[in-house]
Amino acid sequence: MSDFPEQMVDWTDVDAAQHLLAQCLGIFPRDVSMIEKKWVYWSDNSLGSTLYRMLEALVSAGVIEKRDEPDLQYRWIAD
Question: N or C, which end of the chain has less CB nearby within 10 Å?
Fold first, then answer.
Protein backbone atom coordinates (compact mmCIF):
# COMPACT_ATOMS: atom_id res chain seq x y z
CA MET A 1 0.00 0.00 0.00
CA SER A 2 3.03 2.28 -0.22
CA ASP A 3 1.71 4.19 -3.26
CA PHE A 4 -1.47 5.23 -1.48
CA PRO A 5 0.07 8.16 0.47
CA GLU A 6 1.63 9.63 -2.68
CA GLN A 7 -1.59 9.25 -4.66
CA MET A 8 -3.66 10.87 -1.92
CA VAL A 9 -1.60 14.04 -1.41
CA ASP A 10 -4.36 16.23 -2.89
CA TRP A 11 -8.06 16.14 -2.08
CA THR A 12 -9.51 13.12 -3.87
CA ASP A 13 -13.19 12.35 -4.49
CA VAL A 14 -14.53 9.38 -2.55
CA ASP A 15 -14.91 7.10 -5.58
CA ALA A 16 -11.38 7.81 -6.80
CA ALA A 17 -10.03 7.28 -3.27
CA GLN A 18 -11.82 3.92 -3.08
CA HIS A 19 -10.36 2.93 -6.45
CA LEU A 20 -6.82 3.90 -5.43
CA LEU A 21 -7.21 1.93 -2.21
CA ALA A 22 -8.50 -1.11 -4.12
CA GLN A 23 -5.52 -0.93 -6.48
CA CYS A 24 -3.03 -0.56 -3.65
CA LEU A 25 -4.55 -3.59 -1.92
CA GLY A 26 -4.31 -5.61 -5.13
CA ILE A 27 -8.08 -5.95 -5.54
CA PHE A 28 -7.86 -4.36 -8.99
CA PRO A 29 -4.79 -4.26 -11.23
CA ARG A 30 -3.16 -0.87 -11.67
CA ASP A 31 -4.07 -0.79 -15.36
CA VAL A 32 -7.82 -1.04 -14.65
CA SER A 33 -9.46 2.38 -14.81
CA MET A 34 -11.99 3.64 -12.31
CA ILE A 35 -14.57 3.90 -15.12
CA GLU A 36 -14.27 0.15 -15.74
CA LYS A 37 -15.18 -0.52 -12.11
CA LYS A 38 -17.56 2.38 -11.46
CA TRP A 39 -20.33 -0.05 -10.48
CA VAL A 40 -18.29 -0.85 -7.36
CA TYR A 41 -18.34 2.77 -6.19
CA TRP A 42 -21.72 3.90 -7.54
CA SER A 43 -23.95 1.04 -6.39
CA ASP A 44 -24.80 -0.72 -3.15
CA ASN A 45 -22.49 -3.73 -2.90
CA SER A 46 -20.24 -5.31 -0.28
CA LEU A 47 -16.92 -4.40 -1.94
CA GLY A 48 -17.76 -0.73 -2.37
CA SER A 49 -19.15 -0.54 1.17
CA THR A 50 -16.04 -2.20 2.59
CA LEU A 51 -13.71 0.18 0.74
CA TYR A 52 -15.73 3.13 2.05
CA ARG A 53 -15.56 1.77 5.62
CA MET A 54 -11.80 1.32 5.22
CA LEU A 55 -11.44 4.98 4.23
CA GLU A 56 -13.52 5.99 7.24
CA ALA A 57 -11.36 3.79 9.49
CA LEU A 58 -8.26 5.56 8.16
CA VAL A 59 -9.92 8.88 9.02
CA SER A 60 -10.68 7.64 12.55
CA ALA A 61 -7.08 6.49 12.91
CA GLY A 62 -5.81 9.94 11.91
CA VAL A 63 -4.07 8.70 8.76
CA ILE A 64 -6.20 10.54 6.21
CA GLU A 65 -8.56 13.48 6.54
CA LYS A 66 -12.04 13.99 5.13
CA ARG A 67 -14.09 16.95 3.97
CA ASP A 68 -17.71 17.15 2.85
CA GLU A 69 -17.54 20.32 0.73
CA PRO A 70 -17.37 20.89 -2.18
CA ASP A 71 -17.74 17.07 -2.42
CA LEU A 72 -16.95 14.11 -0.19
CA GLN A 73 -13.15 13.94 -0.47
CA TYR A 74 -10.13 12.50 1.31
CA ARG A 75 -6.41 13.24 1.45
CA TRP A 76 -3.34 11.87 3.18
CA ILE A 77 -2.24 13.70 6.32
CA ALA A 78 1.36 14.76 5.66
CA ASP A 79 2.59 14.39 9.23
Answer: C
